[in-house]
Amino acid sequence: MGPMLDIYLLTQQLEPFVQIGTRAAFFTLVNTIKLVLFLWSGMLSRQLLVLGAGLGAISVVGVLVSKPIVAMIPKKWFNRMQYWLTAYAGAIPTHLCPPRHAARVV
């Protein structure tokens, strides 16, 4: 879903911070829904929730470090990097990852 959203956002010609914020808001919504469903089904333990909260706190450091970096990148180069990274992400499943369930020949 990520590469498809990236392509859509690139076609909207948004500023880099708006594009990043829109992507973050979208995936926050999606992951919150998934979290509620996992909690409801009983698939998450207290230990796993504590781990997730700790990793979420660490991600704040990544946001603070990346903000000035994104501010220095011109929109043209930001969009080019997005296109290249999206193309790379689309190529990974077909060329670099072995199939998980290979057909068994008897």
**What general outline do the C-alpha atoms trace?**
globular
Share of residues in strands: under 5%
Count up the domains: 1
The percentage helix is: over 70%
Taking all Cα atoms into account, the compactness measure Rg is 18 Å
Structural class: mainly alpha
The total of beta strands comes to 0
What is the typical, i.e. mean, pLDDT? 86
**Spatial gap, N to C terminus:** 36 Å
Strand count, sense and barrel status of the largest sheet are:
none
Unreliable spans: none
- Count the DSSP helices: 4
Helix-strand pattern, N to C?
A: HHHH
Description:
The protein has 106 residues and is mostly helical. The protein is built from four helices and no strands. Helix 1 (2-11) runs antiparallel to helix 4. The chain starts with a helix and ends in an 11-residue tail after the last helix.
Quick gist of this model?
Helix content is 79%, strand content 0%.
